[in-house]
Design a protein that fits this description.
The chain is α+β, with helices and mostly antiparallel strands. Helix content is about 40%, strand content about 15%.
Length: about 400
């Protein structure tokens, strides 16, 4: 009995030690406390498709409807994608192939579809007409691109009047034919009457897209030079400080924000950490011996240490010049669109924005993550907001 008791105590101490080590390890990782979270719908999964703009855009509009007191609705992303593909094809052919064509887009694309075609519920148009349970667009993206390329390069030296019909039928084969009328919750709608009646007349003209780059004048509009801006839409341009003020004012007033950004940074952790940060070595907290050891590391080893992201740490101070240099060198590109739905703080009290992503529940935060202020300042390419969420002084400067 004594031997067993000793063994039991030893085993207990062993597991207590492991638990303590695990707790210590957990305690040094990122831990977040919500400060404010705005009404929003659940996380979706764009899966293997390049349609983040559509998922972020519908999420944003779904939150706007909730803010307006409308019923929760799951909007169809592929309704937007199909319509945009048709319009991209027309522009690509008219431009003789000298413009971008693909599944990508910007947040303002949803406003374009709303204004011209309306909206549809996901249940009436899931866009999965090709035997998959989730969105897998490799085949359809390539096929549609080959179609418009063949039309532009045709050897007849004359484009037929039926090419767009063939293109539309191909897109509909994959996504499904868009119904002219449909029933939702017992009532009959068209896409336009669904937007005007069920969605309470939500107005696409109430929304503005804003960016911050110094190669164009501030408080004016310019066409953002990224490939996915196939509509050549103009965005409002503001200084970096105003961009942050707009986001903060929007959240404070109860408005969520559509967010387009570069996510190729090492500080954008797609792992369980669920953070987007711009880390910088903090020599002020190092001893002389630690500084000496750090300086002896190779660049690769420094990089490895810096991006372990085991706990919150010092981040870069982002300036307009640093942000612009990253865009000019194409280190910052228009990679991904997401949805800012709230504010949080880490265990040190440092503020972050809570972001809803469209990759399903891929991390320990169930598909959400937390972006630091420096990351937002550094890597944002554009935001989409309700114009009523703009601070009054900035709105006047923009002439809105």
């Amino acid at each position: 009995m004594k031997i067993k008791r000793v063994i039991s105590i030893a085993v207990l101490l062993f597991f207590c030690s492991l638990a303590t080590q695990a707790q210590e390890k957990k305690d040094t990782s990122y831990k977040f406390t919500l400060v404010k979270e705005l009404p929003h719908t659940g996380v979706k999964d764009q899966f293997r498709s390049g349609t983040c703009w559509s998922f972020a855009g519908t999420s944003f509009i779904e939150s706007e409807l909730l803010r307006m007191g409308k019923p929760e609705v799951n909007l169809s992303e592929m309704f937007l994608v199909n319509h945009c593909y048709r319009n991209k094809a027309d522009r690509y052919v008219r431009m003789q192939g000298n413009t971008n064509f693909g599944g990508g887009g910007l947040l303002h694309d949803i406003l374009y579809v709303m204004k011209n075609y309306g909206l549809m519920p996901e249940s009436n148009y899931p866009g999965l007409n090709y035997g998959e349970k989730k969105h897998v667009h490799g085949e359809v993206d390539n096929l549609l691109k080959e179609m418009v390329t063949a039309i532009v390069q045709n050897k007849n030296k004359k484009i037929t009047p039926v090419w767009s019909v063939a293109f539309q039928k191909c897109a509909d084969t994959y996504f499904g034919e868009i119904p002219e009328e449909f029933k939702y919750e017992g009532k009959k709608y068209t896409p336009k009457t669904f937007m005007s009646d069920f969605c309470g007349g939500i107005n696409p003209d109430d929304y503005v897209e804003i960016t911050s780059f110094s190669h164009h004048p501030f408080y004016q509009q310019f066409i953002l030079e990224v490939p996915d801006n196939w509509l050549w839409e103009k965005l409002y341009n503001v200084p970096l400080g105003d961009l942050k003020q707009i986001i903060d004012n929007a959240i404070d007033k109860g408005y969520t924000v559509g967010w387009a950004a570069d996510v190729s940074e090492k500080g954008f952790a797609t792992s369980q950490k669920g953070v987007a940060v711009v880390p910088e070595v903090n020599k002020e907290e190092m001893s002389n011996a630690e500084i000496t050891k750090w300086e002896k590391l190779s660049d690769a080893d420094k990089d490895k240490e810096l991006y372990k992201l085991n706990k919150p740490g010092k981040e870069k101070v982002i300036t307009q010049e640093l942000r612009q240099a990253a865009f000019d060198s194409q280190e910052t590109t228009d990679d991904h669109a997401m949805h800012i739905i709230g504010l949080a703080k880490d265990q040190n009290g440092t503020p972050y924005y809570k972001i809803k992503n469209s990759w399903g529940p891929y991390n320990s935060f169930d598909g959400y993550f937390y972006a630091s202020i420096p990351y937002i300042q550094y890597k944002t390419t554009a935001i989409l907001v309700n114009k009523n969420a703009l601070p009054e002084d900035i709105r006047k400067k923009l002439g809105i």
